[in-house]
Design brief:
358 residues, alpha+beta, six-stranded mixed sheet
C-alpha cells in the first residue's frame, strides 16, 4: 500500500475537478482526500502502485471537459497511517499563490433543457447554471475559487440548492454560481426617471414586447451591458447608431437559433460547429441576397456578424417556441452591441449604465 500526493495546476477549479477526482477514487477503490488551494488542486491517495498509476492516467485522459491540466506532479510519501475513506476537504488559501480561473462558459445543454421544462424548479429562471457552464471569471474576487470568494456570496443557498451543492455526484456540486428562483438573484426592467417597471418573468415578457415595438434596451450580461434592438427595424437600428455615435461599423447580431441564422446567411459545416460550440463566438458569414434585416445593420458589406445565445437571459429573450414566452412574440434577430458610447469603456455597473446609457 503506497501513499501518493498529487499537485495539479491549470484550469482545475470551478470546472468540476474535485467531484471528478472523487468519482475516480471511488471507481478505483482508493482512499484519501482532495481539496482546492490558491495554488491548484491537491490530492493525497492510498492504494497499490498499479492502481495508483491507472488513477493518474485516468486523470489525464478523462478530465472534465472544461478543465485544462498544465502540470501534474506526483510525490511518494512515507507514511504508515491509513485513510478510511476518500473525502473532499475544505479549500485552503496560500498567500502569494496564483491559479488560473476558467473563463465564463455558455449555458450547457442540460441546463437549457431544464430552463424550458415546465416541471423543473428552475423553469424560465434567468440564472440557471451548473458545474459545466455559467459565469466563472466575472464573479471571482479571490482564490481559491469557492462561493465565499465570489459575488454569489451574498445569496444564501436554499435547502434544495444546498443539497445539490454539497452532493459530490450532483452536476451542481460546488458550482459556485448555483442558484434558483427561491434563493438566487432575479432580473428587473428599469427605465431612467420612471423606476422599476417589472420584475422576474414579467420583466422578461415586457422586454420582449418592447423589443418587438422597436425600443432600444440595455441588457446586463456577463462582464457588462449590451444594447439591443430589432435587427429588422431600420428606424430602431438608425436611432441606435445615432445615439451610440457609431457611424458605419457593422453591429453584432444574435439569433434565436442556428436555423434562424441560416435564413439570413450562408452557413458552412465548419461555421455551424463554431456557432454551436461552448465559446459561442461572433462569426462573419456571407449575407443571403434575400435577407430582410435592416441594411444599416452592416452598411456596405456583404457579411453579417452572428452569434447564438450564450446565457439563459439571452435564450429567454429570443426563444420562439416556449408557450409562456410566446405570449409576447419577439423578433428572431436582435442587434446585440456593446453597451457604451463609441470609444468609451463598456458600462458594467448598474448605476453607471443608468446614467451613461439612458
Amino acid at each position: 500500500m503506497l501513499t501518493w500526493h498529487l499537485h495539479i495546476t491549470g484550469v482545475v477549479q470551478g470546472v468540476g475537478f474535485r467531484p471528478f477526482i472523487y468519482g475516480l477514487a471511488a471507481r478505483f477503490g482508493l482512499r484519501g482526500w482532495v481539496n482546492n488551494t490558491s495554488a491548484g488542486v491537491e490530492v493525497e491517495v492510498q492504494g497499490e502502485e498499479e492502481t495508483l498509476r491507472a488513477f493518474v492516467q485516468a486523470i489525464r485522459q478523462e478530465k472534465p471537459p472544461l478543465a485544462h491540466i498544465d502540470s501534474l506532479e506526483v510525490t511518494v510519501l512515507e507514511r504508515t497511517d491509513r485513510f478510511t475513506a476518500f473525502e473532499i476537504r475544505e479549500s485552503a488559501a496560500i498567500e502569494g499563490a496564483f491559479q488560473p480561473i476558467s473563463p465564463d462558459v455558455a449555458l450547457c445543454a442540460d441546463c437549457e433543457h431544464e430552463l424550458f421544462d415546465p416541471a423543473d424548479r428552475r423553469y424560465l429562471y434567468p440564472f440557471i447554471n451548473c458545474t459545466n457552464c455559467g459565469p466563472r471569471f466575472t464573479i471571482i474576487k479571490d482564490l481559491p475559487y469557492d462561493r465565499p470568494q465570489t459575488t454569489m456570496s451574498a445569496f444564501s443557498l436554499c435547502p434544495d440548492c444546498g443539497r445539490e451543492y454539497h452532493d459530490p455526484i450532483d452536476r451542481r456540486f460546488h458550482a459556485q454560481p448555483v442558484a434558483c428562483p427561491v434563493c438566487g438573484p432575479h432580473v428587473w426592467l428599469e427605465v431612467p426617471g420612471q423606476g422599476i417597471l417589472a420584475e422576474r418573468l414579467e420583466a422578461i415578457l415586457a422586454t420582449r414586447r418592447l423589443l418587438r415595438e422597436g425600443k432600444i434596451l440595455a441588457i446586463k450580461g456577463l462582464g457588462g451591458f449590451h444594447l439591443a434592438c430589432d435587427a429588422a427595424n431600420a428606424e430602431a437600428v438608425e436611432t441606435l447608431r445615432r445615439r451610440k455615435g457609431r457611424q458605419g461599423k457593422p453591429f453584432a447580431l444574435m439569433a434565436a437559433d442556428l436555423a434562424t441564422v441560416e435564413r439570413f446567411c450562408f452557413v458552412s459545416e465548419t461555421a455551424r460547429d463554431l456557432l454551436t460550440g461552448r465559446e459561442k463566438p461572433i462569426l462573419l458569414l456571407p449575407r443571403r441576397p434575400e435577407s430582410t434585416l435592416a441594411e444599416s445593420v452592416a452598411p456596405g458589406v456583404d457579411t453579417l456578424g452572428f452569434m447564438l445565445p450564450y446565457t439563459p437571459i439571452h435564450l429567454l429573450l429570443l426563444n420562439q417556441t416556449d408557450p409562456t414566452l410566446a405570449a409576447e412574440p419577439v423578433p428572431p434577430v436582435l442587434v446585440m452591441t456593446s453597451g457604451n458610447y463609441s470609444e468609451e469603456p463598456i458600462a458594467t455597473d448598474n448605476a453607471d449604465a443608468l446614467e451613461r446609457l439612458a
